[in-house]
Design brief:
With 462 residues, this protein is an alpha/beta fold. The protein has 15 helices and 15 strands. The chain folds into 2 domains: 114 residues, Alpha-Beta Complex (Aspartate Aminotransferase, domain 1); 265 residues, Aspartate Aminotransferase, domain 2, CATH 3.40.640. Helix 4 runs antiparallel to helix 13.
């Protein structure tokens, strides 16, 4: 007698007859064929190791035991960056974002959304345009990586070109996501080398690789190493000379001291809004910043725009409305220019609240504290025997690279973690640094005592 088909009242994918019916409807011969677009290298290749069911109290104890192994601030000192940074979140920001009229809205993207949320998003857009020196900012995308991917796709659509240059000193994960986003468009990607001594983009290599078929150059300032691109105006100018768009990725905190991207001619600006009042939280939620230099580009921008007008019943009263929504995959399907299916409105509200609370002077004071602490820490680590700190000779903000003469970066990282200090994330080998090195991040939350403990942990790990 044949075994009865598997069934489960809550897990329809275990019903083999139902699975077969679904596959028939979509025209796939098997589940493997359905997911054939997923590369083999990222597949698990085996069944999940899931234990048999247990009583609820046993499961709770097991999960709590595993969670207790996590090393989280403030119980552990964190000096990690690269896309998620340890910054202080004012209590007022948490109070505002936890109000239920904002908190329960989830993802307001329809035109009939409440005036309160529309106004908060309008304020976010306005503040970000001031900060970035751009004319239009959307509200908003998932994170820096997805915003970068959308920006390069947009550049391909706007220019009609199918090649993009990516700065070799930009984040590896962001470059990977750009590749994922652009591959279906048939866009090719080429990496521009960086100066191994200063950590900044190699202008000579950029000029050699710019050509009439390049849609854009993607560059980060500060770059992945924390380095400041001192020739950024020349970089953007070179891209424009070849007819390419300049896409610049930023850490918004750096703009408390550095020139805004719009000031040196950026066409599209993307970045990570997490430092603007959003706590570190196991990788999310984040806030993808996306802005363009003028209204001509805005029509090709993914996401949504909120505008201010007046009430029809009373012209003296302000009113807010959604004036542009590029989320059209629910209408155009695969012909849509973007697949942004939600947004980060609550996180945009947090960023707007954060910037409003700090104000111009407070924001500048924050940047001064960050650069003072990070430079002090780099000098202090430079006193530890067996290291070079900072590794690069160029200027830097908040993050810097430390190289080790005799130890493996992975070993140093793990040894410090055992002492409750999360620091020195190993610089990926793809950068071709030619040395074992770790990335360090120091912000306004770190005290001199914290930095001494960091130096002591590093010394003990070498």
């Amino acid at each position: 007698m044949r075994d009865a088909p598997r069934r489960h009242p809550l897990l329809p994918n275990l019903d083999e007859a139902l699975v077969a019916k679904m596959l028939e409807k979509v025209g796939a011969g098997s589940v493997d064929e359905l997911f054939s677009d997923i590369p083999q290298k990222v597949r698990l290749g085996r069944k999940l190791k899931i234990p048999e069911g247990a009583a609820e109290h046993e499961v709770r104890r097991e999960v709590q035991s595993k969670l207790a192994q996590n090393m989280t601030p403030p119980n552990s000192l964190c000096f990690l960056g690269g896309g998620v940074w340890p910054h202080y979140v004012p209590a007022a920001v948490e109070s505002i974002t936890s109000r239920q009229e904002f908190y329960t809205a989830y993802t307001p993207y329809q035109a009939e959304v409440s005036q309160g949320m529309l106004q908060s998003l309008f304020e976010y857009q306005s503040l970000m345009c001031d900060l970035l020196g751009m004319e239009v900012c959307n509200s908003s995308l998932y994170d820096w990586a997805s915003a970068a991917g959308e920006a390069v796709r947009m550049a391909g659509r706007v220019t009609g070109r199918r090649k993009a240059l990516l700065a070799g000193n930009s984040g590896t994960q962001r470059r990977s996501v750009i590749g994922t986003y652009t591959e279906p468009m048939g866009m090719s990607l080429e990496t521009v080398a960086y100066d191994k001594a200063r950590g900044t983009l190699d202008m000579g290599d950029l000029r050699r690789k710019l050509s009439p078929d390049v849609a854009c150059l993607y560059i980060e300032n500060p770059n992945f190493f924390g380095g400041i691109e001192d020739a950024i105006e020349d970089v953007v100018g070179a891209a424009h000379e070849s007819g390419a768009l300049a896409v610049v990725g930023v850490d918004p905190i750096s703009l408390s001291l550095l020139k805004e991207p719009g000031g040196y001619g950026s066409d599209i600006v993307v970045g990570e809004g997490q430092p603007l009042g959003i706590a570190m939280n196991f990788g999310g939620p984040h806030l993808g910043i996306f802005a363009v230099r003028d209204l001509k580009l805005a029509r090709s921008m993914p996401g949504r725009l909120i505008g201010m007008t007046t009430a029809a019943s009373d012209p003296s009263r302000r009113a807010f409305a959604m004036v542009l929504q590029a989320r059209e995959q629910h209408i155009r399907r695969e012909a849509a220019m973007s697949n942004v299916c939600t947004n980060q409105s609550l996180m945009a509200l947090a960023a707007a609240s954060y910037l409003s609370l700090l104000g111009k002077e407070g924001f500048r004071s924050l940047g001064e504290a960050v650069i003072s602490n990070s430079h002090y820490a780099a000098r202090r680590l430079g006193q530890v025997t067996g290291v070079v700190s900072p590794h690069f000779k160029g200027a830097y903000f908040k993050e810097f690279v430390v190289s080790y003469r005799k130890k493996k970066a992975e070993t140093v990282y793990r040894q410090m973690a055992k002492k409750g200090v999360l620091a020195g994330y190993p610089v990926p080998r793809e950068f071709g640094l030619g040395a074992e090195a770790g990335s360090y991040c120091v912000t306004e939350v770190h005290t001199p005592e914290d930095i001494e403990r960091l130096a002591s942990a590093l010394e003990g790990a070498l």
